[in-house]
Automatic annotation (TrEMBL):
Keywords noted in UniProt: Cell membrane, Membrane, Protein transport, Translocation, Transmembrane, Transmembrane helix, Transport
Keyword Transport: yes
Organism: Mucilaginibacter achroorhodeus
GO CC, any one term: plasma membrane
Membrane topology of the entry: Single-pass membrane protein
Subunit structure: Component of the Sec protein translocase complex. Heterotrimer consisting of SecY, SecE and SecG subunits. The heterotrimers can form oligomers, although 1 heterotrimer is thought to be able to translocate proteins. Interacts with the ribosome. Interacts with SecDF, and other proteins may be involved. Interacts with SecA.
MF term (GO), any: protein transmembrane transporter activity
Name of the protein described by the UniProt record: Protein translocase subunit SecE
InterPro entries: SecE_bac (IPR005807), SecE_sf (IPR038379), Translocase_SecE/Sec61-g (IPR001901)
Protein's GO biological process: intracellular protein transmembrane transport; protein secretion; protein targeting; protein transport by the Sec complex
Compartment(s) of residence: Cell membrane; Membrane
Amino acid sequence: MAGVAEYIKESYIELTEKVTWPTWRELQNSAVLVLVAALIIAMVIFGMDQIIGYLLNQFYTSLT
């Protein structure tokens, strides 16, 4: 049990004294970057889905 308490104590010290936390401005910039990247990836996937759907529709209508 003493090992668990020591682990928690060392973890707390590391999080409060050794970790470099981002500033509020850096955090906002990172969030915007992630949002833009997610939107771009979503648009690429949407475009691929539309193209594949169109091609499959053309293929199936040509069978009848």
